[in-house]
Amino acid sequence: MSSIEQKEHILVCVSASPTNAKIIKTAAKMIHSEDTVFTALYVETPDNSKMSEKDKNRLQENTKLAQKLGAAVEIAYGENIAFQIAEFARLSGVTKVVVGRDAVYPRKVHFKASLVDSLIQNAPNLDIYIIPNVENSISEKEKWFHSKLELSFRDIGISLIILLAVTGLGLLFQTFGFTEANIITVYILGALLISVLTNSRGISLVISILSVILFNFLFTEPRYTLQAYEQGYPVTFVVMFAATFITGTLAMKLKDSARQSARAAYRIKILFDANQEFSKVHGTTEIVNVMAKQLLRLFDRDVIFYMAEGKTLLQPTLYKVEDGSTQQIEPSPREREVAQWTCENNKHAGATTVNYPDAAYLYYAVRMNEKVYGVVGLAMEHQSLEAFESSIFLSILGECALALENEKNAREKEEAALVAQKEQFRANMLRSVSHDLRTPLTSISGNAGILLSSEQNLRPEKKRELYQYIYDDSMWLIKLVENLLSITKIEDGNMGMRMNPELVDEIAAEALTHIDRHSEEHRIQNHIRDELIIVSVDARLIVQVFINLIDNAIKYTQKGSVIELRAKAADHWVTIEVADDGQGISDEEKERVFEMFYTQGTKLSDGRRSLGLGLALCRFIIEAHGGTMTLTDNVPHGSVFSFTLPIEEVKMNE
Known about the structure:
- The protein has helices at residues 20-29, 53-68, 81-92, 115-122, 137-149, 153-175, 180-197, 203-219, 233-280, 284-299, 333-345, 387-436, 438-454, 460-492, 504-512, 539-555, 587-590, 614-624; strands spanning 9-13, 37-44, 72-77, 96-102, 127-133, 303-309, 312-313, 317-319, 326-328, 349-350, 361-368, 371-379, 500-503, 523-526, 534-537, 562-570, 573-580, 629-633, 639-646.
- By secondary structure, the chain is an alpha/beta fold.
- It has 4 domains: 9-148, Rossmann fold; 152-259, no CATH class; 283-403, Beta-Lactamase (2-Layer Sandwich), CATH 3.30.450.40; 497-646, Histidine kinase-like ATPase, C-terminal domain (Heat Shock Protein 90, 2-Layer Sandwich).
- A hairpin with a 2-residue loop joins strand 11 (361-368) and strand 12.
């Protein structure tokens, strides 16, 4: 025996019976805890296709009652109702089944086992609670009997034609001397054809009786009478009737089973296609469009969808079946009221329901558990949905809700990853800043301390040297802070670019005025001054790119090296290069130099580490302008940093 107590699961059977509401209410009263699972099962059989409009409405009312009482409605398909209930109970872990039973008819009048008896045989270990159905029992039995024998004029016509045809064929067989067994086979074939071509459930019984009468009247001695001389004829008639009736009935059942299988396969295909479509799209709007298109294709009715933000519905979108167009509309106050009620109560309402039956649309909430993503409305035109249509409708809404839930989870995951990335960025920045600021701050405080304590004893040259060190370190800190501020603005999306036409040579000249004292130890050759190129850029940011690239070349090359600034225009773009003739950068490091906080292994000339922000900042700025930044080798040695900017076309006014 399991140590874990099985959760209680109550199953109630839903039907079109007038007393089914009583059974559903009784089952709901059996729920004693919040953990109890409550399910309402409707078994759709071939007879349901001939259900009257009154019975269809009653079935819908009973289904809605079950949903209102907290039951999850499920649909099964099959000829044997008891078997379908037992299988569902076994697979779903049902502990109690609540069904109804007519109290008027004693069991001895039935040749076939009742639903309850069959259910007990199929599930002997299941707790079955039987609720007597006293009201209207006889009328329901009579309706069942008449539905079995209901014949249409079309079915009668087809049956008479086939019956005349097989009779004529039997007379032809008799003329050629065929045996009576061959003629009986022809009548069985006729019954089989009639069962396949007609839809009436009682046609097999009628045709079987008529076949026996015609065979006796036309083919047995004495002919053209209903008498039979030979002693074996009664047995022949009984066998012929049984064979004809069984053959026709089995053919009808096979046809009904094929129809049910086709509907089930169609439902599976629709859900599979919907699932495939939902998996291909991204974004709430695209998911809703897929759902609406599926509903338009299935029901050939207009669809309206309200996106929900909390409990507030936004302006709806109407999907028209006439031309497939999509447009935002302003619905009538009544329709919006119904949709809002559906959203707030998480229940369906509108046309064909008890809640707002005067509405033009049937509204359902697109929800996952208690989360409502929106409300969808299906134009009803005073026509209620069949159980099969309702099942597909709810299944597609469930697939849509699942896709919206996955989209929300993916979006939240991306946002969480972005937040984590920013936090990691800030942590790395603080760690690098705290580590790398020690050297310049120590130098500044040390040199300032020497000046304060020994200013009178220092020679003027030494004082100037100390002042220069303090100035250099403070300028290094200023550039570092500028890079940090720019990086944080880019990460937060607050860079605020101001684009204007600018001359490239003026931007380069402005940048060279901000290069530190170490530039005197290198030869900087500015070839851009010879070019007249206008670009559409934020000059402040591009100046910073030039400064970072030139400073980078100064730091990582030996004294006396040459740094060249070049520019060339082609195809609406200008390519700007900062080249040096230093030691160069290895192929392995080329792939990482633009990463945040990455620094080269080469030791800097002034002994300070770089934070690894300069090149990353340059790439961000250039990409924000729509350009690209690359690193290549200089010939015969060194490195070339290149970036592109869009050329501004100047219109001359004469």
